[in-house]
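Notes to self, WSC domain-containing protein:
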Amino acid sequence: MAKPLYRLQRFLRRAQLFLLFLGVAYIMAGSVLLLQRASLVVTQRGATSPPLPSLPSIPSPPRALELGMPPVRVGGYGGRSSRIMARGQGYQPGSLLDNRTGARWLMSRNLEIRHLRRRWFHSLMTEKDMSQVERSTPRRNVPHKGSYIGCFLDNSKERALRGSVFTDFRKMTSTMCQDTCSARLNCTESVYLECTHSGYQFAGLEYGSECYCGNHITSLRVRDKECNLDCKGEKGSVCGGVGRLSVFTVEDMLPGQRRYRNVRYRGCFREPENSSSTSLVHVLQLNLTSQSCIEACMNKEFPLAMLRSPDCFCGYATPDFTLHEPAEEEHCSQSNTTEASLPSTLQHFYQVYQTPVQDSRCTEKNFLPEKSSSLVALSSFPGAGNTWVRHLIELATGYYTGSYYFDGTLYNRGFKGEKDYWKSGRTICVKTHESGRREIEMYDSVILLIRSPYRSLMAEFNRKCAGHLGYASDQHWKTKEWPEFVSSYASWWASHVLDWLRFGQRVLVVHFEELQTVLVPRLRSIASFLNTTVTEDRLLCAESNQDGHFKRSGARQPTFDPFTPDMRGLIDGLIRAVDQALRDRNHTGLPLEYLPR
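result:
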């Protein structure tokens, strides 16, 4: 009996040593592979980066909602929804949403580390070292649409080109930048860019991924070899450098041939009492028209063009000229007549136009200078406008927002906090759609964004069918997927709000529709809640640039009402329950437009 036991002990000892040896060998092999990969970043700049694994941008609805709700039928909207309406309290899906991994952010940080390493590497290199690298790195002679002018200095305080800016960390090329600045893009060529006519004279690229447009170059030219970073979407083509801008001319058009589809008429406004405080620039023109005034202000890179015949003024919205109190249009029509006998009270009104020029006073953004010990959630039901509010918060505060998830499309379009670990403390708030008790209690406070369930459901269905900026077709709305979607997601809309009201430690309720109508006051309250000081100029700049790149153009709707009477009965009951819960906790109730009439 002892002999078999002895043999078994010897076998187990050998097995332990064998497993230990395999573990050490595995770790050493992994280390060698990592070292080889790191060396490739420096020595093989032309190599393409492996694609990142895609991660879901939003969570799936709680399993209880997917499995527990029946398909749409007459009288089939009871069950959990009726219990929510009756109790005014949401379900508790904490255990059903715990299907995520805590280290998913590690999967997407490789490109950011490379980018930071490249900046650090070039900041330490001497001119001699840089010339050696340039000689050793072959470059392709990539043709460009416009003429290359040269390499120019650029920094965040004094931009070389001040017209507008957009970012693409994955697909940026010199041709894309030139097309955007000269307005040759259309909706079918790039679904993530607004379909606008910019009409700028120059296009500049920096860091391989940033595109700047403008009509004047305001910085000094440097040696061409200082622009030494590849375009993210075109290896071998130069797209600026670290603090260096590769500048191209774009196709020129005669002033009368330019058309600006994104010029917006802001209204008729009284001239401010202290005109000097608004920093208006007076433009003298013969045969002044609204078109010529807009083009003159665009050429001078101002976001506002103000017409009062025979004068044209260019400038910005300021605390003394906020554009929040429009006057009657008849004042401007009378003020712009040629009669000099008008009363003095009618001689001081402007017709104000928003030009395609981007207000640059709020475009510079950074991570928090010191890690925050407080974790703030920006929570909403999917389709409630979370991305748009993140864009507004970044403009108003100057700090990046983070995300509990990772959406590569958002990161490529400039949301740098998308890749940052959501608990890093470097972002001012964190996007989330979660609503379980355990997830809620991880945050110290929350900005709870609420939108009409009718519009939220349609927006999320559009996104699921056609992406961030697309629209579902009539055929999509007529399939069985739509009633099943409403059956599951309508209850989730209500329970999401109720759970955050119940378990949230410090809650600021923000209504999407109020942001649309009174943006600046609501942004001011959000900034105060985030314990951040913002200037009035920056808030007005955020209002000027409020649309961003993730806004569906127009208001395309299905040709028929997609909500059946049964659906409306369900949704209206949920609206009443949420409205009552908000009032019971001393919050403002839902806007009147939500409530059934």
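- The CA atoms of residues 115 and 207 lie 9 Å apart.
- Residues 39-80, 86-142, 184-197 have pLDDT under 50 and may be disordered.
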